[in-house]
Known about the structure:
The structure is a single chain. This protein is 29% helix and 29% strand. With 241 residues, it is an alpha+beta fold. A hairpin with a 2-residue loop joins strand 2 and strand 3. Helix 1 crosses helix 2 (133-147). The site of adenosine-5'-diphosphate has 16 residues, from helix 2, helix 3 and strand 8.
Amino acid sequence: MSESRPRLIREDGLRVDGRKPEDLRPIRMEVEVLKNANGSALVEYGGTKVIAAVYGPRETPKAVQLPDRAVLRVRYHMAPFSTSEHKSPAPTRREIELSKVIREALEAVVFTDQFPRASIDVFIEVLQADGGTRTAGLTAASLALADAGIPMRDLVAGVAVGKVDGVIVLDINELEDEYGEADMPLGYAAGIGEIVLLQLNGVLTPEEFKKAVELGKRGAERIYAQMKETLHKKYLAVLES
Ligand code: ADP
């Protein structure tokens, strides 16, 4: 093994940040964080911080309208200050790809057919990147859509599973993503039991893949419960005010 590659599983079996393989990072979430958007959410998975804003359903120019449903547009963007090296603010190929996979995941749950000829715009801004920005972004987007009152079949919770030093681990951070053997982001609509996003970078055996999907689903269920609690709290606050 080369000198520069850090050990990702310690002698005691714990990960670089002291977590067990099946542990999530500390997760924080809040909705209604922006005054001018129809819906918004701030989500933190450890050092990863993402904000999502939703506008719509609103009128859209004829050229982009669809006659039978709303157009869902998603922009995933990393702020120039979100990474250790200043990132160019111009959209990269990676950001264009991530916008597309997040849009496809959300299209699986949003009832776009209720708003023909309208558009629903979702902006995801990564404020600080420490691994799992697309999955934290998906969770934030789903919360922001719910906050905007957009009808959906279910909420979607995102989480990335990885393989590091031969061990399948939940919710990988940047170091684990960079030096691990595999990285598998997953979006799970836990209420209806549907996986709406699944990507795999690296190699897993069929047994490891099965284990990774199960671990991802269990992790996403915990995030999903926290999402529901966050939305519930918002409505309790409205009732109490
Ligand atoms: P994800 O953030 O969904 O895990 P990637 O696997 O592409 O997506 O990226 C892993 C991590 O690498 C990111 O979370 C971020 O911490 C870091 N990273 C990604 N793009 C850049 C970049 N342009 N500059 C510096 N770090 C980056």
